[in-house]
Write a structure and sequence with these properties.
CATH superfamily of one domain in chain A: P-loop containing nucleotide triphosphate hydrolases
Number of strands of chain A: 9
Mean pLDDT of chain A: 78
CATH topology of one domain in chain A: Rossmann fold
Keywords (chain B): GTP-binding, Nucleotide-binding
Helix content of chain A: 25-40%
Protein name (chain B): Septin-like protein
Order of helices and strands of chain A: HEHEEHEHEHHEEEEHHHHH
Organism (chain B): Zancudomyces culisetae (Gut fungus)
Number of strands of chain B: 9
CATH architecture of one domain in chain A: 3-Layer(aba) Sandwich
Number of domains of chain B: 1
InterPro entries (chain B): G_SEPTIN_dom, P-loop_NTPase, Septin
Radius of gyration of chain B: 21 Å
Largest sheet of chain A: 6 strands, mixed
Shape of chain A: globular
Distance between the termini of chain A: 43 Å
Strand content of chain A: 5-15%
Strand order of the largest sheet of chain A: 2-3-1-4-5-6
Oligomer: heterodimer
Largest interface: A-B, 52 and 51 residues
Number of helices of chain B: 7
Order of helices and strands of chain B: EHEEHEHEHHEEEEHH
CATH superfamily of chain B: P-loop containing nucleotide triphosphate hydrolases
Low-confidence stretches of chain B: none
Distance between the termini of chain B: 51 Å
Radius of gyration of chain A: 24 Å
Low-confidence stretches of chain A: 313-373
Largest sheet of chain B: 4 strands, parallel
Structural class of chain B: alpha/beta
Structural class of chain A: alpha/beta
CATH topology of chain B: Rossmann fold
GO molecular function (chain B): GTP binding
C-alpha cells in the first residue's frame, strides 16, 4: 500500500517550468484546431473567421454571380491553414457548410454535418486501435461548431432547434448572433434572452457545460461567458481612423462601428473565449466527452460480439437497421482470421435513428479495412 | 401585402409608413410553442390616412410565418391562392346580373417583398416566390434591415439582386411600363427603377432634431435617420406608394394583371364548356 503525503517545498527546485515544457512538446507535435461553421449563406461566417484571425485568408462560399446556381444540398468545404504566432504553431482547419438552410425544403439539412463529424471520430478510432499505430494520431475531429443565428429573429427558429439538438449530441456548439450591427442595445438584450430561454427549454447542451473538475475560477469564467451568450458579433477587417486612433470596423453614413469596443458588440469576448481561454478546453472536451462516448459504444460492441458468439460460421456481414434492437453481425472471413475484433456499427445507428445508412456502411468499411491490414 | 421571413421589419415598416401603430406587436408567444411550425397566416389591418389631400383607405395584409418553417413549399401556393381568390371574387361580382354598387375591391395592388440582407443576391425561396406571384400582383422588392449594410455593400447587393432578376427573368413591377407617358415621367420612372430594391430601415423612436422631430434608430455608434435619403430609401418608397404611383399600381392591377387573369380563366371555362358540348355531340 502506497502512502500519499502532501509536501511543501522550501527551496526553489524548478519543476514549475512544466507548463513551458508541455507547451514546447505540444507545438512540436503540432496542435490541430478544427472549427465548423454552420449557418445560412450571407450570415457572415467567412468574414467572422477572417476577423478573428485578423487576416482575409478564407474566401466566402456564397453565390457570387447570378448565373451560379444555388446549391442543392449542404456541402462540406474544408480549408486548412498553418498559423504561426510567436513560437506557437496551429494547424487550423475551417469546415464551411455552404448550402445549409438554403433550400425551400430544408428537411435533413443537418445530415451531412453530423455525418462529417462522426466520420472524423471513426477515422480517429480506426487509427487508435491499429496494432501498430502512429506516434501522433492526426486529429481531424471537429473541436467546435459555430452556429450562426439570424439576428433579426426573436429567438430560435424551428430549423435552429432541430439542428442544434442534433449537433450538440456530437460536438461542442457555440451559438453566434452575427451581423449584430442591426440590433439596438435593447433589441440585443431581448433577442439574447429569447435565445437563452429557448435553449434552456429545449435542453440544448451548448458549450460550455459544467464539469465537476472545474475549479472556482473556471466556474466563474464560464458563468460570465454564459451570461453573454449568444455572442452578438460584427465582423470586419477594414480599418478606419477615429479620433486619431486606428480602429477595425464598419462605416456607415451614420457612424463607425468599432468591433473591438465591448459596448458595440461582443467580438472581443468571443475571440478571447475561443482562442485565449477555452481553446485547449474545446479540444479536450471533444476528446473526453464526444469522442470517448463514441469510442465506448464501439468497443462495447466488440465485447458483446465476442461474448455472444464464440464460433459462428463466417459469412458476408449483413446490415440491419432496426430502431432499438442490436443485431449481432457476422464478421467477415478476413477480419476474423486477422483479429478477433469485429466492430458492429448498428448500435450507433440504433441510438441515433436520424443517422443515415450510407455513412454507417462507410464507417464499417473503415474499421474492417483497418483490421484486415 | 407584406411578404418576408420573420425578423425583417415588416410590422415596423407599416407602422412607420402610417405614422401610427397599425400592426400591434406580436403576442409574446409561449416559448414551448415556438418550435411548432405555425402555418402562414393572413392578417388584415385597415387604416385610413390623408396624404397630400387625398383620403386613402389602406388595407395591409401581413403574412407572418412565411418562410419560417423547415419545409416552405406550401408558402407559395397559399399566397397564390389568396391573391387569386381576390380576383375570383371580382370576377364573380362582375358577372352578376344585379351588381352591388357598394362592392369593395379587395384585390392586392402591391406586394412588398422583403429581402434578407445576405450580401449574396436572391435566395432560392425568393426566386421561386417572385416567379410564381409576379403574374398576379405588382411586386416591389425591398431590403429589410438595410442598416446592416455599408453604402458600398448596399450598392453591390442591389446590383446582385437586379442581375438575378434579369437572369431568372423575374416578373417584378417595372416602373417604366407605361410607354405612353410623357418623357419627364418616363425619366423619373427610369430613375426609380435604378433604385430598386429599396433599402428600408424601420423607425423605433422619434427624437427632437434641429428642425423638429425626426424618426430615428439609435445605436451606440450612431443614429440612423429614417427619412434621410442618404441613409435609407424609406422616404422615397413612401412617396411612391402613397403619392406618386398609387394610381399606377391600382391601374396596372385592374387593367393588366386582372384582365390577363380574367382572360385566362374565361378561356379555361370556355374550353371546359366546349369539351362538354363535344362529349354531348359524341353521345348523340
Amino acid at each position: 500500500m502506497s502512502k500519499q503525503q502532501s509536501v511543501k517545498l522550501t527551496d526553489y527546485v524548478g519543476f514549475d517550468t512544466i507548463a513551458a515544457q508541455i507547451g514546447k512538446k505540444i507545438f512540436k507535435k503540432g496542435l490541430n484546431f478544427n472549427i465548423m461553421l454552420v449557418g445560412e449563406s450571407g450570415s457572415g461566417k467567412t468574414t467572422l473567421v477572417n476577423t478573428i484571425f485578423s487576416k482575409n485568408f478564407l474566401e466566402s462560399s456564397g453565390r457570387k454571380q447570378a448565373a451560379e446556381k444555388s446549391r442543392k444540398t449542404t456541402e462540406i468545404l474544408i480549408t486548412t491553414s498553418v498559423l504561426t504566432e510567436s513560437n506557437a504553431k496551429v494547424r487550423l482547419t475551417v469546415i464551411d457548410t455552404p448550402g445549409f438552410g438554403e433550400q425551400i425544403n430544408n428537411e435533413n439539412c443537418w445530415v451531412p454535418l453530423v455525418k462529417y463529424i462522426k466520420d472524423q471520430h471513426v477515422a480517429y478510432l480506426e487509427n487508435e486501435i491499429k496494432p501498430e499505430r502512429e506516434r501522433v494520431i492526426p486529429d481531424t475531429r471537429v473541436h467546435v461548431c459555430l452556429y450562426f443565428l439570424n439576428s433579426g429573429y426573436r429567438g430560435l427558429r424551428q430549423i435552429d432547434i432541430e439542428v442544434l439538438k442534433r449537433l450538440c449530441e456530437v460536438v461542442n456548439v457555440v451559438p453566434v448572433l452575427s451581423k449584430a450591427d442591426t440590433l439596438t442595445v435593447d433589441e440585443k438584450m431581448k433577442v439574447k434572452e429569447k435565445v437563452r430561454e429557448a435553449i434552456e427549454l429545449h435542453r440544448i447542451n451548448i458549450y460550455p457545460q459544467p464539469n465537476p473538475q472545474d475549479d472556482q475560477a473556471e466556474i466563474e469564467l464560464n458563468n460570465k461567458v454564459k451570461k453573454v451568450m449568444p455572442f452578438a458579433v460584427v465582423g470586419s477587417n477594414l480599418t478606419y481612423e477615429e479620433d486619431g486612433e486606428i480602429i477595425k470596423g464598419r462605416k456607415n453614413p451614420w457612424g463607425i462601428i468599432n468591433i473591438e469596443n465591448k459596448d458595440h458588440c461582443d467580438f472581443v469576448l468571443m475571440r478571447d473565449f475561443l482562442l485565449r481561454t477555452h481553446l485547449i478546453d474545446l479540444v479536450e472536451v471533444t476528446s473526453y466527452k464526444y469522442y470517448e462516448s463514441f469510442r465506448t459504444e464501439q468497443l462495447q460492441h466488440i465485447r458483446d460480439m465476442r461474448g455472444a458468439q464464440p464460433a459462428q460460421t463466417t459469412q458476408q456481414a449483413q446490415q440491419t437497421q432496426q430502431a432499438q434492437q442490436v443485431q449481432p453481425t457476422q464478421p467477415t472471413q478476413q477480419a476474423q482470421s486477422a483479429n478477433p475484433f469485429s466492430i458492429a456499427i448498428p448500435a450507433q445507428q440504433a441510438k441515433s435513428p436520424s443517422f443515415t445508412k450510407p455513412s454507417v456502411q462507410s464507417s464499417r468499411k473503415y474499421i474492417s479495412n483497418a483490421l484486415s491490414k | 401585402m407584406l411578404v418576408g421571413v420573420s425578423g425583417l421589419g415588416r410590422r415596423t415598416f407599416v407602422n412607420t409608413l402610417c405614422e401610427r401603430e397599425v400592426i400591434p406587436p406580436p403576442v409574446a408567444e409561449d416559448p414551448e410553442m415556438a418550435h411548432m411550425v405555425e402555418p402562414m397566416k393572413f392578417n388584415k389591418y385597415e387604416t385610413q390616412m390623408i396624404e397630400d389631400g387625398t383620403n386613402i383607405f389602406l388595407t395591409t395584409v401581413d403574412t407572418p410565418g412565411y418562410g419560417d418553417g423547415i419545409d416552405n413549399y406550401s408558402c407559395f401556393t397559399q399566397l397564390q391562392e389568396y391573391i387569386e381568390s381576390q380576383f375570383d371574387e371580382v370576377l364573380l361580382e362582375e358577372s352578376r346580373i344585379r351588381r352591388n354598387s357598394k362592392y369593395k375591391d379587395n384585390r392586392v395592388h402591391v406586394l412588398l417583398y422583403f429581402l434578407t440582407p445576405t450580401g449574396h443576391g436572391l435566395r432560392e425561396l425568393d426566386i421561386e416566390a417572385i416567379k410564381r406571384l409576379g403574374h398576379f400582383v405588382n411586386i416591389i422588392l425591398l431590403i429589410g434591415r438595410a442598416d446592416t449594410f455599408t453604402t458600398d455593400e448596399i450598392a453591390l447587393f442591389k446590383l446582385q439582386v437586379m442581375k438575378d432578376v434579369m437572369t431568372y427573368e423575374l416578373p417584378i413591377y417595372n416602373f417604366g411600363w407605361d410607354d405612353e407617358s410623357d418623357p419627364e415621367t418616363l425619366e423619373e420612372n427610369q430613375e426609380i427603377q435604378a433604385i430598386v430594391p429599396f433599402s428600408i430601415v424601420g423607425c423605433d423612436e422619434v427624437v427632437d432634431g434641429d428642425y423638429g422631430s425626426i424618426r430615428v434608430r439609435r445605436y451606440p455608434w450612431g443614429t440612423v435617420e429614417i427619412d434621410n435619403d442618404d441613409m435609407s430609401d424609406f422616404g422615397l418608397l413612401r412617396y411612391i406608394l402613397l403619392n406618386s404611383h398609387i394610381s399606377d399600381f391600382i391601374d396596372y392591377t385592374n387593367n393588366v394583371l386582372y384582365e390577363e387573369y380574367r382572360t385566362q380563366k374565361l378561356n379555361e371555362n370556355k374550353d371546359d364548356e366546349s369539351e362538354e358540348e363535344k362529349e354531348e355531340d359524341d353521345e348523340e
